[in-house]
Amino acid sequence: MTLDPRVQRIIDWRESIAVLPDNHFFEIIRMYLGEIKTPFNKQKLIEELGAFLRREENRRILISLLSETDLKIISAVKYISNATQEKLFSFFSGSFSFAALYERLLNLEERLILYRKSDKTTGKTTVLINPHLEEDLAPYTRQSVLLEKAEYAQLSYETGFSLTPLLLASFIAFINKNPDLCKADGTFKKRTENEIERLFPGKKEILFNLTKAFINLSLIREIPGGYETDKNKFLAFSLLDERLQYAYLCVASQGRFSRSSLLKQAKLLLDVAASIPHDGFSRSIILRLAYLISEDQGDGYSSQNFGTTSRFSAILNRAREQEIQTTGKDSDLSSVLDRLIDCAALFGILAKKGTDIHNEAIFVSGTVLDENEKFTDTPKCLSVDAAFNVTLMPGLSLENLIPLMDFMELKTFDTAAVFEINRKSIMHGFDSGLGANKIFSLLKKYSPYEIPQNLEISVDDWSRSYSSATIYKGYILRVSTENAGITENNPAIKPFISETLAPGIYLLSVESDEQAASIITRSGLDFIGKIKSPEKNYESIGFPEFEVPQKNNRFDADEEAKPTSDEERAAHFEAMRAELEKLNLPQEKKEGLLERIQHKIILSPAQLRSDSVRFERIEAGGMDFSGKLHIVEGSISNNSMVELQFDDRIIVGIPLSVTKTGTDATVLMEVMPEHDEKLLSIGQAKFVKRIRGSVLR
């Protein structure tokens, strides 16, 4: 029989209390139920603790004491799958130190809001919300709680740049003319940089990223002496929605990925861009946003799809590695955005709107995500003058522009691009398979004016010159006239006939003897003798497509319930302190209860019981060497973490052993969150503090 999920979570919570070390178990029981009378039954005490939480008044006060920071941590626990202490620290990187987050988590567990569940097989421990409080917390725990609104210190009034079909096409024309644009290390040659600055002022960085993307998407391929464009591949690419094109280019500019990885990263990028509100998010919040979106997608993303690591993924790396070891998969996905953000801003998928009070860039979604204007008629945005200069205005899609780039040479690029038609560019067009008639057809299709007659005369003249002689390189198949028909229509041979040179004489588009031999074998034509190898599909495989997300407010905070104000919480603390002052208690007992009030553990005067307090010293500093040593040694015996403060740093970790020397002592610590072991001087520490309890480990 399958238990109701909530019932199972309550059982898990009860078990998490039951398996606590005795000193921590009894401490929690005393905090809420008072002194434990013997004989006692653990399960009965846990049931009484559950009954304490089921009282509506207790839950109401507990919820009312939650601060905005509390709600952020609780919301992160709710929305991050298998939330571990390391993953939470990674998620809040930059907002909390490890020690601060650890103490917050410990405090929320002491307040019975969070609990830990350990997997007995893997040893992995996750943080969960107490099932007794799930419904009460639901109105306050939204994803939007985790995404702070931008606080502008400075606005940017620059008009954001965006990739356009005309820019892509113009750069294709540039590559056609300058195949040797890169050095051996992949950077632009000095001559290329100068030419780019002349033709594309201010766009060198954009075009360098585009070059990397073209190479990694196999849109251009390496040849002796440089690169050449793969027209079929570019045409397949041009059939995509423009927003998909730019997302793929952004991802591919950062590395070469598998087909599925390319799709997943592009989808994540567009999902994130579409979810940024009008006022924008800072870079760190965008990374959180990506994390949340990836959690929403479940297994739709996986870090194995995302190639090399980045700054943010390095921060999350340890948490991910731990999860991979225990679950066999990796659910942290937002890190890919760190290496994509700058390029996304460069390409117009994102736009920088200003900087926040921490001098961090604030981004909004770029104009790329706006709905593109669709032309019902063929745009007439091309004009040709008598000097064979072609002016192209924006309006044509990349699919329309690519054929034009085969026979035009770029002169300058701006809002409009200016090209030139000359003998060399026309010859390139002929080499690309265009004839004079096709060239005239394309020019007339997009021009509202008549094509200059002298251009038509020149192109016809160049065409006659071009076709007067042809040089071929490759494998020739010759068959008798009587077998020509059979050969031409044979399905194994027909796809590889690139040119019929004469009746029965064919130029084959094969690359090796092995390939030719394989084709002939598969043809079944026994009158053809030996020759060539593996079948090659010359139709370019298309790029994966997905539905482009529209701009949305999926993380809007309108429905979010607000926590009580600082003043309201302060009123509770004052009331509890006033009740404490009425009690005739020893000073040590009062200080212990006052600390519980400050930690939001005291919900009602009934908890102000002196018999529930056990005094213990948890911090020491200055010249009190014996006190500092006592704190560290006590932390080892209690299996607790310690915080050591030095002049230049604060170190948190698990003390493993103490070695005493003449006038000092050193502690071997497993430093968090790096899990590195270090020897540290206890005497040189300005302040030593035991982080109470090890409930969270």
Compact overview of the structure:
By secondary structure, this protein is α+β, with helices and mostly antiparallel strands. Helices cover 44% and strands 15% of the residues.
Describe the structure.
Helix 14 packs across helix 15 and helix 19 packs across helix 21. The relative contact order is 0.10. About 6% of the residues have low confidence. The strands form 6 sheets. This protein has a 6-stranded antiparallel beta sheet with strand order 17-22-18-19-20-21. Strands 3-7-8-6 form a 4-stranded antiparallel beta sheet. A 4-stranded antiparallel beta sheet has the order 9-10-12-11, with helices on one face. The chain has 697 residues and is of the alpha+beta class. It is elongated. It is built from 26 helices and 22 strands.
Q: What key attributes describe this structure?
A:
6-stranded antiparallel sheet, 44% helix, 4-stranded antiparallel sheet, 697 residues, elongated, alpha+beta, 26 helices
Topology:
Elements: H1 5-18, H2 22-33, H3 42-54, H4 56-64, H5 68-79, H6 85-91, H7 98-110, E1 114-118, E2 125-129, H8 134-137, E3 152-155, H9 165-177, H10 190-199, H11 204-216, E4 220-223, E5 226-229, H12 231-238, H13 242-252, H14 259-275, E6 281-282, H15 283-296, H16 311-327, H17 336-347, E7 350-356, E8 361-365, E9 382-384, E10 389-392, H18 398-405, E11 409-413, E12 417-420, H19 423-431, H20 436-446, H21 453-467, E13 475-478, H22 481-488, E14 497-502, E15 505-508, H23 513-523, E16 532-533, H24 566-582, H25 587-598, E17 619-621, H26 625-638, E18 641-645, E19 650-660, E20 665-671, E21 676-681, E22 687-691
Antiparallel strand pairs: 1-2, 3-7, 4-5, 6-8, 7-8, 9-10, 10-12, 11-12, 13-15, 14-15, 17-22, 18-19, 18-22, 19-20, 20-21
